[in-house]
Write a structure and sequence with these properties.
It is a single chain. This protein is mainly alpha-helical. Helices cover 52% and strands 5% of the residues. Strands 1-2 form a two-stranded antiparallel ribbon. Helix 2 (24-37) packs across helix 5 (81-93). The longest helix has 14 residues, at 24-37. The protein is globular, with a radius of gyration of 14 Å.
Amino acid sequence: VDTEEFMGGVETACKGKSYDALPEAFKFFIEAQFKTIDVDGDGSIGLEEFRYDCVSRMAYSNVEVLDEAFKKVAEGDSLSLARYKDLYAQFLGNPDESCVACSLFGPLPEL
């Protein structure tokens, strides 16, 4: 499977769908990813956990850009599993690059 085929498969499986309508394999992955980020195991992702997850993927010039992304996706001072699942489904299935879900993994670089 090449990149184009993979992206087409994700689009077919996820575009315009809510979390509950995603394939079971996607839901399993999303919930496992949440548990990996929730290092302290309290059932939510806090600012420090969010920062750590973001910098494990990409370097940022300052921490403020991560804090701004967290404010967009969090509910108060944390990100619940329910919200994470909803945003992840939006990230996969919503082609609008200005949607809030695009901040779920920190600020994304423009391509």
